[in-house]
């Protein structure tokens, strides 16, 4: 150590292990055998350490070695450090291989029907040691439960305040005007999709049932309406997906939703998707977790399963949606 640099040199764990083993064996030769290295290599490493520390650690003799006071202090401290590290590694491995792990996941109402069963089935099949609990709720409720710790993960649509959470955008989906199949005759319909797109400002002239004003999708629709210089005047405001779909199915009004939210109704011919002219409105879903909570191995596995199931559903039902790559990919 030079006079210019008064900081102690950095030690490697193997150096601590060398000194501790020599202290235990009382001999460099026996210590080298226990460590599985050549005696000259160990002797050289100890000499280099003494040079780096500018301190004698060992007194070498014909019948072995004796530690100096400094060497004994380093050996004892080294044992404590190594024991602490070994304990930490055991705990980490234990956490990574728990026999039973429970993860609570929140899904928005527009995705539950599409994802809940495939997600639960996939986790049960591929990771039977993980027990998953799935909650369906509005974005506001999901964020409250995530903040309280009742949920470990939640999928929510953008537009809400995510500042308290780690938020990863995972997919983007197109929004459509949704109408009863017998309540839309402006253009031919093929496989549930109207072949002629409409302008967004047409919504101002159509009977609509929309989510309540605080709903993230409604906030987005109102912003789009302002940008298109029109005003949305719904007949009714509802935050129930089932009620929205019921109104549309009965031809009582039109609604605005993604394909994923009404995939079954479109498949059976009850509802029709009417696209908007480009640029078509879209909204983005995020995978959220709390920033201040450790991420368990089980949670990471469930995150991967969510993305896998999403990709499978998009392909299976040919959804107008796309997965988003994580930042940095």
From TrEMBL:
<feature type="domain" description="HTH lysR-type">
    <location>
        <begin position="11"/>
        <end position="68"/>
    </location>
</feature>
<dbReference type="InterPro" id="IPR036388">
    <property type="entry name" value="WH-like_DNA-bd_sf"/>
</dbReference>
<keyword id="KW-0804">Transcription</keyword>
<dbReference type="Pfam" id="PF00126">
    <property type="entry name" value="HTH_1"/>
</dbReference>
<dbReference type="Pfam" id="PF03466">
    <property type="entry name" value="LysR_substrate"/>
</dbReference>
<dbReference type="InterPro" id="IPR005119">
    <property type="entry name" value="LysR_subst-bd"/>
</dbReference>
<dbReference type="InterPro" id="IPR036390">
    <property type="entry name" value="WH_DNA-bd_sf"/>
</dbReference>
<comment type="similarity">
    <text>Belongs to the LysR transcriptional regulatory family.</text>
</comment>
<dbReference type="InterPro" id="IPR000847">
    <property type="entry name" value="LysR_HTH_N"/>
</dbReference>
<keyword id="KW-0238">DNA-binding</keyword>
<dbReference type="GO" id="GO:2000142">
    <property type="term" value="P:regulation of DNA-templated transcription initiation"/>
</dbReference>
<dbReference type="GO" id="GO:0003677">
    <property type="term" value="F:DNA binding"/>
</dbReference>
<dbReference type="GO" id="GO:0003700">
    <property type="term" value="F:DNA-binding transcription factor activity"/>
</dbReference>
<protein>
    <submittedName>
        <fullName>LysR family nitrogen assimilation transcriptional regulator</fullName>
    </submittedName>
</protein>
<keyword id="KW-0010">Activator</keyword>
<keyword id="KW-0805">Transcription regulation</keyword>
């Amino acid at each position: 150590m030079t006079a210019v640099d008064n900081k102690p040199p950095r030690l490697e764990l193997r150096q601590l292990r060398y000194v501790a083993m020599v202290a235990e064996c009382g001999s460099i030769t026996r210590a080298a055998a226990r460590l599985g290295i050549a005696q000259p290599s160990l002797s050289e490493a100890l000499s280099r350490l003494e040079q780096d520390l500018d301190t004698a650690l060992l007194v070498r003799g014909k019948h072995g070695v004796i530690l100096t006071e400094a060497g004994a202090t380093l050996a004892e401290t080294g044992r404590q450090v190594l024991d602490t590290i070994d304990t930490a590694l055991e705990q980490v491995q234990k956490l990574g291989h728990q026999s039973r792990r429970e993860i609570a996941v929140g899904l928005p109402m527009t995705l539950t029907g599409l994802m809940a069963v495939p997600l639960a089935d996939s986790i049960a099949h591929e990771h039977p040691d993980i027990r998953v609990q799935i909650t369906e709720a509005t974005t506001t409720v999901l964020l409250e439960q995530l903040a309280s710790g009742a949920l470990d993960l939640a999928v929510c649509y953008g537009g809400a305040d995510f500042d308290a959470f780690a938020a990863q955008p995972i997919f983007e989906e197109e929004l459509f005007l949704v109408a009863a199949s017998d309540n839309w005759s402006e253009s031919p319909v093929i496989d549930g999709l109207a072949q002629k797109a409409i302008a967004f400002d047409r919504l101002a002239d159509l009977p609509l049932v929309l989510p309540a004003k605080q709903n993230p999708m409604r906030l987005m629709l109102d912003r789009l309406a302002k940008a298109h210089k029109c005003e949305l005047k719904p007949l009714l405001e509802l935050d129930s997906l089932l009620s929205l779909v019921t109104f549309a199915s009965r031809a009582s009004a039109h609604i605005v939703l993604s394909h994923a939210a009404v995939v079954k109704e479109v498949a059976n011919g009850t509802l029709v998707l009417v696209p908007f002219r480009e640029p078509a409105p879209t909204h983005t879903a995020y995978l959220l977790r709390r920033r201040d909570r450790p991420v368990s191995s089980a949670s990471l596995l469930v995150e991967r399963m969510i993305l896998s199931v999403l990709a499978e559903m998009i392909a299976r039902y040919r959804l107008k949606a796309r997965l988003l790559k994580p930042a940095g990919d």
